[in-house]
Structure of tRNA pseudouridine synthase B:
Amino acid sequence: MKRKGTGPDGLVIVDKPEGITSHGVVAKLRWLAGTRKVGHAGTLDPMATGVLVIGVERATRLLGHLMLTAKTYEATIRLGQTTVTDDREGEVTASVPADGVTPEAVDAQVAELTGEIMQVPSKVSAIKIDGKRSYARVREGEEFELAARPTTVHAFTVHERRAAVAEDGTPVLDLDVTVECSSGTYIRALARDLGAALGVGGHLTALRRTRVGPYAVESAHTLEQLEEKLEVLPIAEAAAAAFPRWDVDAEQARLLSNGMRLDAPGLGADGPIAVFDPDGRFLALIEESGGKAKPVAVFVG
């Protein structure tokens, strides 16, 4: 039986558990909210845990804009083994002892992978090639290459280094790291590229997303908690947290609601601006263009 929604449309910040797909979380939230109009911003692999931003009802229209924000991950990289998926869920394709890798060598290569870089995504990513997902092509045994694409790694910090021995007896080195990056950065690819640069191979053994834009894991809810009580961040609060704010007067609000273009507020924002009426109601997302407020998405009317 479908469960009736218990909150207004808005965002649900989920602390995704390991072993479930992002689509699986969406399906769960559709049942909890009692609506089919549910979507997510920024997919997490089944192996990964942490912040997954879910939009319910009108807030699904915010998600495409939220995907442009910065993200933070806590991860563990294993040096000394390469896998077909660039993470621990794939078959090991090569093992090279990593006990000779020095901290100085790691730090030097981490620095090379920080800043504006060109990154080749993992082949098991969801990128489409001629309309077909890359991971589907891998499963079917196709041979292909993905093009490098620009991305930004704002910070790549190694916190701890631990020597270990893999199941096949290879001496490996595990690195606990924090990565702050732009959307579209693949942490598995960072692990792969770090290992390759050090000559020993590497893959990801753990991944937890701790922040997506302004939404942190401290404010996220587990699926068990959401089953007890569906916590929805109202759309106005969600927009105020994610975008620069522009409060308009009643006449401006009326004109905007009727599809009229307003003079730009002159905030100089690089991206969408959230517009609110005198009562604090969220009206629209706009962008400043040619001195005018160009509507990106209108949420009233």
Remarks:
- The chain has eight helices and 19 strands.
- The CA atoms of residues 151 and 184 lie 7 Å apart.
